[in-house]
Design brief:
CATH architecture of the largest domain: 3-Layer(aba) Sandwich
Number of strands: 13
Structural class: alpha/beta
Number of domains: 2
CATH class of the largest domain: Alpha Beta
Order of helices and strands: HHEHEEHHEHEEEHEEHEHEHEHEH
CATH topology of the largest domain: Rossmann fold
Number of helices: 12
Largest sheet: 13 strands, mixed
Distance between the termini: 43 Å
Strand content: 15-25%
Radius of gyration: 20 Å
Length: 338
């Protein structure tokens, strides 16, 4: 349990959370009353975001939405702020046919989306209004998916999707920095749909008074790969591995690995959006050799940041997707948008 889930250490930061909460409420009030302007773009806009810090499954959800919208014949663009990138300003990551920059220049999530969502225009910019208008003018998409944009209210959206973890979705219930909440829970009223990971109904009970549809989903393993192609899950069964990741919710990756029936000899965690160095790779190789592991396994999000030419076939990555339990609810929201 982190301090963000525990009220007692976090109580010391509570005064700062009050100030943060006041600023957020004033900002939202200004947008709600039209004192701060929201801009429209000449296509449909779908936002995927959350009300907490940490991993809630936004990237695989964007992948899922891209696949569904593409199957409906929609031309899709994906726009992100590009957290953790080394560049500034607007950067075209992919024009739908070619990737034009590296993971460091784009940010790990946008780069991964460019790789996995073939045909999508993918771009990053701190000023998402500016880049959205450029994308519309040059590529004429039917819809723009805004990645991690629930708090970005400058762009009007036709569908606001909020991602939430089931179980203890809001941690200790405090706003930043004392807790994990980026906004007060009342902000959920702005959303049109909530996607909650897991099988319990805790989120539905908490959000019942907001009268927002909640769809539970679970993660699925799409496949396992090395730099040359697919690796069968049965090939991993009973093997000794070391694993590593730099994601917001490393426990979820550990649970995924357990389903492969592997022997996890070591599990290294790095900060979310970690930039891997040669020293990191040397340490991982040393651990693998010392423990005589068969494989070194990571997530797809981490894999795209590794130097592929320095890895052999023992380095693997896992591709994850989502499966909604009530997909028709999502489809019905699409129908309302289009």
């Amino acid at each position: 349990m982190s301090f963000l889930d525990n009220k007692w250490p976090a109580i010391l930061l509570w005064p700062l959370s009050v100030l943060y909460g006041f600023a957020i409420r004033v900002r939202n009030f200004c947008y709600d009353k039209g004192l701060c302007k929201s801009y429209t773009v000449d296509c449909k806009v779908i936002s995927v975001g959350n009300v907490t810090v940490g991993g809630t499954g936004k990237t695989p959800t964007v992948q899922y939405l891209f696949e569904k919208l593409s199957s409906l014949g929609k031309r899709v663009a994906i726009l992100s702020r590009g957290y953790g990138r080394t560049t500034k300003g607007g950067v075209l990551v992919s024009d739908g046919e070619k990737i034009w920059c590296t993971a460091r220049e784009a940010g790990d999530a946008p780069f991964l989306l460019a790789l996995s969502c073939f045909g999508a225009i993918v771009a990053v910019d701190e000023d998402r209004i500016r880049m959205a208008r450029k994308i519309v003018a040059k590529y004429s998409p039917d819809v723009i998916i805004l990645d991690d944009a629930f708090q970005h209210r400058r762009i009007r959206r036709d569908l606001d999707i909020v991602m939430i973890r089931s179980g203890k979705p809001f941690g200790n219930g405090f706003l930043l920095p004392a807790g994990p909440l980026r906004e007060p829970l009342q902000s959920l009223r702005r959303s049109h749909l909530i996607l909650a990971s897991g099988k319990d109904d805790s989120v539905k009970k908490i959000t019942a008074k907001e009268r927002i549809p909640v769809v539970n989903f679970h993660y699925k393993v799409r496949d396992i790969r090395n730099k040359h192609g697919y690796v069968s899950a049965t090939e991993l069964s009973g093997k000794d591995i070391i694993a590593f990741c730099g994601i917001a919710n490393p426990t979820s990756f550990l649970q995924t690995l357990a389903n492969f029936h592997v022997n996890i000899l070591d599990f290294a965690t790095f900060q979310d959006h970690h930039r891997y160095t040669e020293k990191d790779l040397m340490q991982l190789r040393f651990r693998s050799q010392r423990l005589a592991s068969n494989y070194i396994i990571t997530t797809e999000k981490d894999w795209v940041k590794l130097p592929q030419d320095e890895l052999d076939d023992a380095w693997l990555y896992v591709r994850i997707g989502i499966i909604p339990e009530e997909e028709q609810v999502i489809v019905s929201r699409f129908e309302m948008v289009f």
